[in-house]
């Protein structure tokens, strides 16, 4: 057997893990503010306050906005997903079986990425609940609750620039499908309907998607309407794969690992929609 066959196997396996993670590993990472190449145990995300424009007298000094500057620190943690591959089993199986193991590791780390983002969303304090407006914790995801969250983002001057996202549970996605303005082609256009191949669509200027990992507290599922810049996600180490041969087990040990973290940057940019489930 060629002495380089193991290196070929390792490189191919690692590329498969990266491909699987990028394709289906994390749903929420593209929806938040992400920083890569971090060095150290933590990083900071800068926050710049609102500026106020003012008039000036003829030949007078230009007024200064005196922007407030602050930072939010994001701590990174290391995560691992390992698996054994018996050498003789690997010889007996085809490429598809090996890709299953690669995908499993990538998906595990992808779910962890989403868990970090969801934990940061859970740190938000803005709630789309108003008994007077008919939105309470005893109902699901109603149009009134969605519109209240939409109004709250607008009142907080959260940019309506295509960077707004909404993530809901699968039960809430079914409830949205019963809202005519969400599902009817007469309102959103045929190209935006949710059954066009992926569970993502555009509505109210935001990208909506279902997610199975959102926090559930008792009978309440926490759904979110937020802006991309309100959540920070930091990466010190992208997914990397290490394969080592263990002669005593006659097997390879596959170690998928990464170092990431997430933090709430702007509480005003995240509105929680508590939905009865």
UniProtKB/TrEMBL annotation:
Protein's UniProt name: Phage major capsid protein
Annotated source species: Teichococcus deserti
Taxonomic classification: Bacteria, Pseudomonadati, Pseudomonadota, Alphaproteobacteria, Acetobacterales
Domain of life: Bacteria
Record-linked InterPro entries: Phage_capsid_2
One Pfam family cited in the UniProt record for this chain: Phage_capsid_2
């Amino acid at each position: 057997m060629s002495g380089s066959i193991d290196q070929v196997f390792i490189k191919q396996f690692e590329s498969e893990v990266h491909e699987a993670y990028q394709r289906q590993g994390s749903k929420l990472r593209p929806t938040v503010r992400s920083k890569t190449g971090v060095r150290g145990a933590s990083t900071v995300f800068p926050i710049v306050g609102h500026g106020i424009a003012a008039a000036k007298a003829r030949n007078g000094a230009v007024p200064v906005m005196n922007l407030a500057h602050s930072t939010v620190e994001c701590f990174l943690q290391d995560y691992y997903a390992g698996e054994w591959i018996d050498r003789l089993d690997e010889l007996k199986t085809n490429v598809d079986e090996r890709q299953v193991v690669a995908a499993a590791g990538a998906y595990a780390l992808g779910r962890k990425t989403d868990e970090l983002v969801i934990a940061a969303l859970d740190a938000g304090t803005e709630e789309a609940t108003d008994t007077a407006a008919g939105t309470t914790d005893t109902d699901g995801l109603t149009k009134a609750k969605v519109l209240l969250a939409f109004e709250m983002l607008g009142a907080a001057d959260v940019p309506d620039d295509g960077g707004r996202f909404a993530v809901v549970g699968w039960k809430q996605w079914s409830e949205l499908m019963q809202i005519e303005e969400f599902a009817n082609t007469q309102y959103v256009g045929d190209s935006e309907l949710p059954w066009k191949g992926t569970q993502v669509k555009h509505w109210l200027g935001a990208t909506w998607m279902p997610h199975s990992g959102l926090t559930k507290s008792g009978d309440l599922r926490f759904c979110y309407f937020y802006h991309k810049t309100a959540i920070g996600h930091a990466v010190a180490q992208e997914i990397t794969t290490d394969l080592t041969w263990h002669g005593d087990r006659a097997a390879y040990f596959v170690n998928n690992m990464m170092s990431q973290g997430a933090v709430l940057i702007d509480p005003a940019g995240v509105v929680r929609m508590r939905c009865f489930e």
